[in-house]
Design brief:
The chain is about 20% helix and about 25% strand. The chain is α/β, with parallel strands linked by helices.
């Protein structure tokens, strides 16, 4: 299901680049992240695609069952943890609805006359969103791999042909991302790989663990100081205050609760960005991140 979002006021929407996503606040209060899959040159609308997940957490079902034309929604963003770096050659690997952020990337690669190919995996050909649109670029550029016909993509054979001049972009289910990460690491391609997750990586710790220590968090904008217990997350500690911080996944992969760090030394435990990137940007993900120092100061 595709949603076209228009501003209530007749003003241009904030600009965005391929790989960006928005937070969609649904009428129930649920917040979900969706990749922008329209054209970055469209200043009047945002487009997102929502796959109905029967065993999901309720967000996709609410979108499919309750949203009607004219429904007013609050959005936040766009934010981009999956930016398209400049290159002359790209390999895109998509699984299922993970193809959505690839659409504006491919449009940009085409516009820049870059060499690119897409490997697009799905359960069946009929379940693969936007396949007809993508195949218009030609069968030499787009390879659909339907699991019920061909099995899963042969990542080893695929990545064995990749040189150091190719940027690799992958989005889709955790199993696909984990497999691509492992294959790229074994082939010395990790520095060329860019991924975006819809779930936390396998075996990821998403809460406090034995040995964690309590610490203090001061919220600079609010003037509030909270104590975060050894068995609490920062978000848990904020529930007892009037301070509202956006959040969604609570597992450290969506980026909705990213905040600026004004003081202290964060302990980054998320899969949104590498710790070095967070430190360079002075940000952290507060649903799973903790503190290496006795006190953190956050821009909340």
């Amino acid at each position: 299901m595709a949603l076209t979002l228009e501003p209530t006021a007749n003003t241009p929407l904030p600009a965005w680049q391929p790989g960006a996503h928005i937070d969609l606040e649904l009428p129930s209060g649920l917040v979900r992240q969706y990749s922008l899959c329209g054209s970055p040159h469209d200043e009047k609308t945002y487009t997102v695609a929502v796959l109905r997940e029967p065993n999901g957490r309720g967000g996709s079902a609410e979108v499919h069952d309750t949203l009607t034309p004219g429904t007013q929604l609050t959005i936040r963003g766009p934010r981009n943890h999956f930016p398209l770096v400049e290159s002359n050659r790209y390999l895109f690997i998509a699984g299922g609805i993970g193809v959505t952020p690839m659409l504006p990337m491919i449009e940009t690669a085409e516009r820049n006359r870059a060499d690119w190919t897409l490997i697009y995996g799905g359960r069946t050909l009929t379940s693969m969103a936007y396949l007809d649109r993508l195949l218009e670029f030609g069968p030499d550029r787009v390879t659909p791999v339907a699991e019920d016909v061909s099995g899963r993509p042969d990542l080893g054979a695929l990545l064995s042909q990749i040189g150091t001049d190719t940027q690799i972009y992958c989005c889709g289910p955790s199993g696909l991302l984990d497999a691509v990460e492992a294959e790229c690491s074994s082939r010395g391609l990790a520095g060329q790989l860019h991924i975006e997750r819809f779930a936390a990586p396998a075996n990821t710790v998403t809460g406090p663990v034995d040995g964690d220590l309590p610490f203090e968090v001061h919220l600079q904008q609010s003037g509030v100081t909270v104590q975060v217990g050894a068995d609490q997350t920062i978000l848990d500690a904020l529930e007892d205050t009037d301070v509202e911080a956006p959040f969604s996944c609570e597992e450290g992969f969506c980026g909705a609760c990213e905040v600026r760090v004004l003081g202290g030394v964060p302990d980054h435990r998320d899969s949104v960005s590498p710790a070095a990137d967070h430190d360079a940007a002075k940000t952290m993900i507060i649903c799973v991140g903790r503190s290496k120092s006795p006190r953190l100061v956050l821009d909340l």
